[in-house]
Design a protein that fits this description.
By secondary structure, the protein is mainly β. It contains no helices and 21 strands. The chain starts with about 60 loop residues before the first strand and ends in a 13-residue tail after the last strand.
């Protein structure tokens, strides 16, 4: 969702309140550009349930988490960019028809009043948290990361308290925060424009002191460098983390939000220092792209969950059902939420296949 408004010179950057510390300027792999290739669809396990696709219409940047109560909790960006919604169901297919509740609405003026983007729901320390991006109505591209907290065991009840903005090293365009724990530490990964860099957004990681406060170094993991990351906009955004097979996988989305939108992949050994950029290897080719055969375009801004069997991995993402868009892609509402199982290659890396074809007819 990055825009040209946030390239150097569009908004004079504020002087950092603390020194940004970077470890390792070079990434471990991906020195040469490569032509994107299309993988084959990953096989669905025998007897596995088939998923409804599109799963939820006109919901972009989807986030689904399976809670300890066995239910799936869903949130996503709505086309109006003005609220945070939530639904839940016992099955992934059940999210299609589940009642949707508005748990928070944008302010009318000031901070958190425009461009409500990419909410994620997380359970941390016995409380619920929503991470999302927003901007003031008076400066709609001054997008930053904000946090809501709810102490009630049921996120549909209780009170959502605004915990404020996550303060990063610079007051620049930032969005798409996700959080995870690894080896006893909690991390935040997000997208942000770095002053002086010729990009819209790069990916950053930092440890957290609490669910809304960063601590220690903030490290750049990836910046757009390959052709497929720089179509329309120079974007790395929408990170999501998956830990499997002794490794930490970090997917992200690249390029403009039209049919060029696609997913990239960073990989680190689970025993490595995740705050050292040299620990991460970057795939020189995208790992999930538009597909003319299945007629799915611009797949990205993904997350991960597990199937109802509690074992099979499921990819959650959005895509459109057509290539051509009139006007700004952000004004086109038809980024629909999709889900599909995926498998693993012999080398232990994920095999996402291709975006699956529609199972629901006439849903465009």
């Amino acid at each position: 969702m990055s825009r040209d408004h946030d390239l150097p010179g569009a908004h004079p950057p504020a002087v950092p309140s603390r020194r940004l510390m970077l470890k390792g300027a070079a990434l471990a792999a991906g020195a040469l550009a490569a032509t994107p290739g299309l993988a084959q669809a990953a096989p669905v396990p025998s007897g596995a349930a088939r998923y409804t696709n599109p799963l939820v219409l006109q919901r972009a940047d989807p986030h689904i988490t399976r809670h300890t109560d066995g239910r799936y909790y869903f949130t996503a960006t709505v086309p109006e960019y003005d609220r945070v919604v939530l639904r839940r169901a016992r099955t992934l297919n059940g999210l299609s028809t589940a009642t949707e509740s508005v748990i928070w609405r944008a302010h009318t003026t000031g901070p958190m009043s425009a461009h409500i983007w990419a909410p994620e729901l997380h359970r941390i320390g016995g409380k619920w948290y929503v991470y999302f991006a927003s901007a003031p109505a008076e400066d709609v591209w001054a997008i930053r990361i904000w946090v809501l907290e709810n102490a009630h065991p049921d996120p549909f009840r209780g009170t959502w308290v605004e915990r404020g903005q996550i303060r990063t090293a610079w007051e620049t365009f930032s969005l798409d925060a996700t959080t995870f724990t690894h080896r006893g530490s909690r991390y935040l990964v997000w997208a942000q424009h770095e002053p002086g860099m010729d990009n819209n957004t790069a990916l950053w990681i930092s440890k957290m002191a609490d669910p809304w406060t960063l601590t220690g170094p903030q490290v750049r993991l990836s910046t757009p460098e390959y052709d497929w990351e720089c179509v329309g906009y120079r974007v790395n955004e929408g990170p999501s983390v998956l830990k499997r097979n002794g490794r930490v996988f970090l997917t992200y989305s690249a390029s403009a939000t039209d049919w060029h939108y696609c997913m990239g992949l960073l990989t680190a050994d689970a025993g490595s220092d995740l705050l050292d950029a040299r620990s991460w290897a970057k795939s020189p080719v995208p790992v999930f792209t538009s597909n003319d055969t299945t007629r799915q375009y611009g797949p990205g801004h993904n997350c991960f969950t597990v199937a109802e069997d509690g074992r099979s991995d499921v990819l959650v993402y959005h895509a459109r059902q057509y290539r051509e868009i009139t006007g700004d892609p952000l004004d086109d509402p038809n980024r629909h939420t999709r889900v599909q199982r995926f498998g693993w290659k012999p080398d232990g890396t994920p095999d996402f296949g291709v975006p699956v074809a529609d199972t629901v007819k006439g849903s465009a």
